[in-house]
Specification:
Layout (H helix, E strand, L loop, with lengths): L8 H8 L5 E7 L8 E8 L16 H14 L2 E7 L1 H7 L1 H14 L7 E4 L11 E3 L3 H4 L1 H24 L5 H4 L5 H10 L10 H10 L11
Parallel strand pairs: 1-4, 4-5
Antiparallel strand pairs: 1-2, 2-3
Helix pairs in contact: 2-6, 3-4, 8-9
Length: about 220
């Protein structure tokens, strides 16, 4: 049974208040031990609604790919930004998430009148905003952003899997699954790992070594 689609109720409230260009913003990759955090902003209006979307985690990979194309075809604008693991280590994951969200908004060719995020507040933006708990299931524009961010990040993790196949990024996308932790125990962290995340430094310390090499492209 397909998950319920996220409604346009919050966007509708903004539209009725005269705030026509609404940008939903979400991220993918706050929790993993490796890889970047990716944020997306999807700009819609009453004429550019995105239907059939919901939290990306509730959808199959195939359905996310289909909706990724639909979102780019139907939205007024889509912005994407990537903040790499080194920046996450330097500024912490929350600040890196905010940086990614702000950069995604900056990628939009038209400025939004109103922003809806999946809970994360963005005090730097000049327009009104709403920060929704579970926004990716409660708000269509945020759900669309979650799909764009997730598909983009998953593609990056596939590239990292080709560079570092021993960690199994293709399966877990960098999250701290038992097989990922076991790989860290065997090999230590690779250049794509977030060194400040507890699971990485703990397993790396147990392994007593780490993969060396240049920074992978984010």
């Amino acid at each position: 049974m397909a998950p319920a689609s996220a409604p346009h109720r919050h966007e509708g409230q903004a539209w009725r208040a005269g705030l026509i260009r609404v940008a939903g913003v979400d991220e993918a990759g706050r929790g993993p031990l490796a890889g970047p955090v990716v944020a997306a902003a999807v700009l819609i209006t009453p004429e550019h609604r995105i239907r059939g979307v919901t939290d990306s985690k509730l959808l199959s990979a195939e359905r996310r790919e289909e909706l990724f194309v639909t979102i780019h075809e139907q939205a007024l604008g889509v912005g994407v930004a990537i903040v790499d693991h080194a920046t996450i280590d330097r500024v912490n994951i929350l600040q890196a998430t905010r940086l990614a969200m702000l950069a995604a908004l900056a990628q939009l060719s038209v400025a939004p009148d109103f922003i809806i995020t999946d809970f994360v507040a963005l005090p730097e933006v000049p327009c009104p905003q709403k920060n929704l708990v579970h926004g990716d299931v409660r708000c269509a524009s945020v759900a669309a952003a979650s799909i764009v961010a997730k598909v983009t990040r998953d593609r990056i993790m596939l590239e990292l899997d080709a560079q570092f196949p021993e960690y199994g990024f293709v399966r877990h996308k960098g999250y701290g699954t038992p097989d990922h932790l076991a790989a860290l125990d065997r090999h230590g962290p690779c250049p794509a790992h977030r060194r400040t995340f507890a699971g990485v430094w703990r397993q790396g310390e147990l392994a007593g070594r780490g993969r060396t090499g240049g920074q992978p492209g984010a």
